[in-house]
Amino acid sequence: MMTDRIRSFLDARRPEGPCLVVDLEIVRRNYETFTRALPDSRVFYAVKANPAPEILSLLAELGSSFDTASVAEIEMALAAGATPDRISYGNTIKKERDIARAHALGVSLFAVDCMEEVEKVARAAPGARVFCRILTDGAGAEWPLSRKFGCVPDHAVDVLERARALGLRACGISFHVGSQQTDTEAWDRALCDASAIFHACAERGINLAMVNLGGGFPTRYLKDVPGAEAYGQAIFESVRRHFGNRIPETIIEPGRGMVGDAGVLKAEVVLVSRKSPEDRLRWVYLDVGKFGGLAETMDEAIRYPIRTPRDGAPTAPCVVAGPTCDSADVLYEKNPYELPLSLTIGDEVLIECTGAYTTTYASVAFNGFEPLRSYVI
Predict the structure, then answer these.
(1) Residue 308: what pLDDT?
(2) How much is the pLDDT for 148?
(3) Cβ-based neighbours of 366, under 8 Å, separated by 6 or more
(4) Quick one: pLDDT at residue 140?
(5) What domains sit in the chain, N to C, each tagged with a CATH number?
(6) Can you spell out the DSSP letters for 252-309?
(7) How does pLDDT run across 34-77, given as a tens digit for each residue?
(8) What are phi and psi of 232, to 5 degrees?
(9) Which residues, listed in sequence order, are joined to residue 198 by a DSSP beta bridge?
(10) Which residues act catalytically here (predicted)?
């Protein structure tokens, strides 16, 4: 979202070329909102959403823990001031040497979802704590995260029993209901599965203590979404329903919900054209596209708010595309985007709610375009 601080920065600095500007005050506000909405859950910020050092340092100072996907992200969290006990290695696909490096850095909490990953952790990080990720259907999410990660719930019991047999500490279950999850009840189905796994493990003498509720907390793009309080209430009621008075430790991994609305991407109209004189549909080409940080427009999953200096004038549908020589670099075509008819070459556009998954998705130099520049204020 546009804030006075971002507007003042852009007006004063006038940065050339596309760039992302992130307002730390929004990040601070979002963190405080999560801690109020889910007061009994520890926050593990998903570093992959936006690993800017300023963001990590602020969150570390506020008391956040960190969900990391690589050794590099672990080192970023440590450099920002987090202690190893506040870091989870949440990627279920890890090289054994990376597990060993994380363990040497003091990290002791690892995600697994199969026997083979358990065996790697046992060899490289003896005595570590592990939690098993289970599959969920991701219904209601605009960016599903099922299939690639997790195992079926019944198999999780065997995975955790194998972990215990190899000297690891089987501590819990994790799941992810899908990024930009708009259904506050989505966690209920997964918590039902988690409760069943807790009971099955207890019958085998394995006492689990933690449920990692994952991320999924949304950012408001073009449509209204429930507030964090609604998610917190729904999750709390589900935990009580499925676990009764034996409430487990819970952690959450917000990424998009923490930083998405804190960023605005400044871009410029490079070309407005039609494919034929009779074509009523305009093509609007920007100086940033899928390869410049807007990868989440793939399949038009995420529809960002786009503000122009001509807002308020008559509009018509148009195709929005990026600048590269790749036919995949089209943002919105299946569902054309309404933009002012008077929009023209050289106009500055502001793409809001782009604080998450933009700088980290941007290519290094595809077609010679520089990576997306970022300013954190």
Answers:
(1) 98
(2) 87
(3) 291, 324, 326
(4) 67
(5) 90-254 (3.20.20.10), 261-376 (2.40.37.10)
(6) E--SHHHHGGGEEEEEEEEEEE-SSTT---EEEEES--GGGT-GGGGGG-----EE-T
(7) 999 999 999 999 999 999 999 999 999 999 999 999 999 999 99
(8) -60, -45
(9) none
(10) 325 (proton donor)
Spatial CB neighbours of 219, under 8 Å, sequence gap ≥ 6: 180, 225, 256, 257, 260, 261, 353, 355, 356
User: Across the chain, what does the average pLDDT equal?
Assistant: 96
pLDDT, one tens digit per residue, over 73-87 is 999 999 999 999 999
Using one digit for the tens of pLDDT, what is the confidence trace for 175-194?
Answer: 999 889 989 999 999 999 99
Mean pLDDT, residues 299-306 = 95
**Residue located via tokens 């592990």:** 130
In terms of Cβ atoms closer than 10 Å to its own Cβ (0-12, 13-18, 19+), residue 295 is middle
Global model pTM greater than 0.90: yes
Task: Take residue 359 and report the two structure tokens written for it.
Answer: 């700088």
Structure tokens at 17: 């070329």
Those residues whose C-beta lies under 8 Å from the C-beta of residue 111, and which sit 6 or more positions away, are 88, 89, 90, 91, 92, 130, 131, 132, 133, 174, 212
Give the closest residue to 91 by CA, choosing from 53, 50, 51, 131: 131
Among 270, 343, 258, 359, smallest CA distance to 306 is for 343
Q: Do residues 1 and 26 lie in contact, with contact meaning Cβ atoms separated by under 8 Å?
A: yes
3-state secondary structure 193-249: HHHHHHHHHHHCCCCCCEEECCCCCCCCCCCCCCCHHHHHHHHHHHHHHHHCCCCCE
User: Is 145's pLDDT higher than 80?
Assistant: no
325 catalytic per annotation? yes
Q: What is the mean pLDDT of residues 120-144?
A: 88
- At residue 254, the pLDDT reads 97
Q: Which of 114, 132, 325, 353 is catalytic?
A: 325
- Bridge partners of 317, per DSSP, are 338
Query: Are residues 46 and 254 in contact, defined by beta-carbon separation less than 8 angstroms?
Result: yes
Q: How far, in Å, CA of 262 to CA of 259, rounded?
A: 5
Q: How confident is the model at residue 286 (pLDDT cuts 50, 70, 90)?
A: very high
Q: Is 373 strand, coil or helix?
A: strand
Supply 23's token pair: 């307002």
